[in-house]
Amino acid sequence: MAEEIKQVNGSVVPLLLDDIDTDRIIPARYLRCVTFEGLGEHAFKDDREHDSEHPFDHPHYSSASILLTGRNFGCGSSREHAPQSLMRWGIQAIIGESFAEIFFGNCTSLGIPAVCAERAHLDQLHQAVKDNPSQELTLDLHNRQIHFGEISVPCEIPASAHSALTTGQWDFLSQLLSAQEDIQATAEKIPYMSNFSA
Amino acid sequence: MSNFVSEFGRSADPRHATLPCFPYVQAPLKGRSLLQLRINRPEPDAPSVSIGVGLQHPPDDPCSPGTDNSSERHPTMSDRRNLFNKVWDLHEVGTLPSGQPQLFIGQHLIHEVTSPQAFEILREKGLKVLFPERTLATVDHIIPTDNQARPFQDDLAEEMMSAIERNCRDFGITLLNLNDDRQGVVHIVGPEQGITQPGITLVCGDSHTSTHGAFGCIALGIGTSQVAHVLATQSLAMNRPKVRRIEVTGERNPGVFAKDVILHIIRKLGVQGGVGYAYEYAGSVFDEMTMEERMTVCNMSIEGGARCGYVNPDQTTIDYIRGRPFAPQGEAFDRAAQWWLSLASSDDAEFDDHVTIDGAEIEPTVTWGINPGQSVGVTESIPDPEQFHADERTGAEEALQFMGLDPNQPIRGLSIDVAFIGSCTNGRLSDLREAAAVAKGNRVSDGVRALVVPGSQQVRKQAEHEGLDKIFEEAGFEWRAAGCSMCLAMNPDKLVGREISASSSNRNFKGRQGSPTGRTLLMSPAMVAAAAINGCVTDVREMMTPVSV
Ligand code: SF4
């Protein structure tokens, strides 16, 4: 059983942009590796090189563990290197307007809740974080609420991911493994698994 | 509409459903009227939260197309499930304790980039590969397409090659390595070898796995942890997406290729329009397409935000598969073909959503921005961010600034530095033929670096047999070995500095082609060839000899 993730507390790194693709989160040249170790330092590498003010380099946010972002975050390549690099940089939860699906699935299987909030609430949080970068945010995943100082806003996450994370069942491998017999039974009823034998 | 499932289960009334895409349609508004949207637009006050991942079909949800399986309950009635749901139902193993469905995976493809960490997970946990014969490996992303002598000059690339060689050896998996003439880009190799078949579930640690949906199967891109899941259990935890039928009616005009069709669809529906959906591509335009064209369209489903895309199997599909090395042979093939055809969505099949597009409105299409939805027809001008929805304006401005382009500037005539023909989107034989037809007897413009990279060794061999390599070389294109090449920046083929490339690949993201400041214009291979010759974006129709049909 994996850890039950009911709540995440931490300071926030604000990156309220839309359509951030996984090539930007981790440029392809850093995928030339056989382990995920060390990927943390390459998160947003190219964006950071071209923007000296990038939040991932800003001292205010260097100990942040919650990423605040926009719509369609993590679109593009399926590379798990993207959530791995964010996780290894220190991110434990992501709040955005929406997420690309493969990215979302990768996050869930790493125990990183990726929750959606309304844009107006994201704008409000964004401003509040900029005004007070050291303030901690509480993501109350169990009750689908976000608390930041005076601000309390709701968030959404698909029911299956919610239950997987909050009940510590996001380690899918062990669950899949315990269904060996059902897997064999399913295989037997699929025509191509027996090469269409008459 | 009994099978309509609203995003949060708040309401089964389609008028109140949350459609994640429509507040954010990427296309400039002017083209919108041509798209007959028979789908549910959100009310202006519809909830603005767009959960990009709302794939909930709880097992007890009576609205779920999966459980509303009327044919099984009433065997005399016709099966109104669409192909996606028929195939899904057959492969569903059960429901995991976490509440997610467990899906059996019929075919697994792996490559050198997203698999090494998965094998490490297996080693750490002392697990074996459950069905080694159901996984096939190839190498594509990191391999150089000019000098392939081992060890590679890039130590990191060499390390990845050794890793996949060792992993395949240790776990009993067939590897189509560089010295095997079946090697190539994973999404080209699968169909070419007859591994990709209708009715299967196929996954690969690569988002463009959607390509294989062209055969009428469920083809999904997955992450590395999931690669480990499939290796160890031949199954996945996966929520069932909804299904949107995209019907492209009428006929394509001459000079309009499959690439233009998918770029047009993404332009219309937006880069996140497909979130939460599998796309079924249907209508006369798809009926008429070859398998290679269908693959091009399905390949870019992911660029439209969809989980996957597919075309129903028909005679074209069967003819393509017959005789391929991994296809069933003899009587088994006939039984297979019969089963494949029976999976196609019937005329009265049910969908969660339906979009109709007029095929005649599609022009040769070119991207101007930094996502594949930011495109225009070649005769149009680059849009003015002012024309966009407020919440798309910043993105459009950012794109124009990055691309160094001005609003209202015609896209035609824009100078290019590099031309790239290849990738799993457009690196097949028909793509090379189309490009060669344009290149024949012409010369690549001075100062343009032009590359043709076949998608597989088989494609390369056949192209050489037809003399296409000579046509390209005589025109001044470089003729390379098979691989991903300049589609992404993991091998020596890269853009340099601010170079701008006309590319037949699938992504124009910032930095995608290897230079953080490099720029990409996506278009069909024939359009890339035309741009290479003229040194600028060109309407390929002006260079084509009219053929009478
Ligand atoms: S050709 Fe491009 S998109 Fe296709 S698998 Fe290779 S890198 Fe990915």
Question: What is the total domain count of chain A?
Answer: 1
The topology string of helices and strands of chain A comes to EEHHEHEHEHEEEHHH
Radius of gyration over C-alpha positions of chain B, nearest whole angstrom: 23 Å
Q: In terms of structural class, how would the helical and strand content of chain B be classed?
A: alpha/beta
Q: What's the helix count of chain A?
A: 8
CATH superfamily of the largest domain in chain B: Aconitase, domain 3
Bound molecules: iron/sulfur cluster
Strand order, main sheet of chain A: write it out: 1-6-7-8
CATH architecture descriptor of the largest domain in chain B: 2-Layer Sandwich
Name the CATH architecture of chain A: Alpha-Beta Barrel
Low-confidence segments of chain A: none
CATH class of the largest domain in chain B: Alpha Beta
> Which two chains share the most extensive interface?
A-B, 75 and 98 residues
Residue stretches of chain B low in confidence (pLDDT < 50, at least 5 long) are 1-76
Gross geometry of chain B: globular
Biggest sheet layout of chain B: 5 strands, parallel
* Strand count of chain A: 8
Shape of chain A: globular
Helix content of chain A: 25-40%
**N-C termini distance of chain A:** 43 Å
The percent range for strand residues of chain A is 15-25%
Task: Provide keyphrases for this structure.
heterodimer, A: 198 residues, alpha/beta, Aconitase, domain 4, four-stranded antiparallel sheet, 8 strands, 32% helix, globular, B: 549 residues, Aconitase, Domain 2, Aconitase, domain 3, 3 domains, five-stranded parallel sheet, 17 helices, 19 strands, disordered N terminus, binds iron/sulfur cluster
